[in-house]
Design goal:
iron ion binding; heme; 7 helices; 72% helix; Cytochrome C555; electron transport; Cyt_c_prime; elongated; binds heme C; 149 residues
Length: 149
Amino acid sequence: MRRTIVVVGTLLLGVGAVMAQQEIAVQQDNLMRSQAKSLYTVIQKMTKGDIPYNQKAVDEALTNLEADVAKIAKTFEVNPKQDVVNAKFGASQKIWQNKADFDSKIPPVQKAIADVKGKVKDVASLKAAYTSVNDRCTDCHETYRLKLK
Ligand code: HEC
């Protein structure tokens, strides 16, 4: 009886840990998706003319992006050791073998955003801003993001 309780308890703890790990992976993915919303759904679409240029939306997108990027280091502190179920992209285990190098990819993104913030005034300057920020996102993805499907 006592043994059964211990076994069931251990199993429950195991399930809890797996769920917590999936939750961490989801949080990390959600942060990236939120960044994508600002940079791709708003800014990139405007550069392509898919949606009309809107100064307020540009300024908001850059402000949101800045806030999100500042959360990357902390959000990726814990290794979830699993991917989000059905995700297209996953986090490389290299992140947690070399977290300092991973973190070093963040300030260049912040600098690219700071450099263009308040200076974007039209589609042409938005295009330049998009490229300079996106190139810095890519610098991290090349090493630390895995394509799963
Ligand atoms: C310091 C590293 C790093 C930086 C900087 C970074 N990312 Fe990521 N990104 C990752 C990792 C790791 C993943 C894969 C794991 C995940 O999705 O959480 C990822 C995944 C993504 C995904 C795929 C999400 C999905 O599952 O569909 C998008 C979109 C994305 N990032 C956008 C951005 C944008 C936009 C920026 C720049 C503003 C950016 N990222 C900056 C590390 C980074």
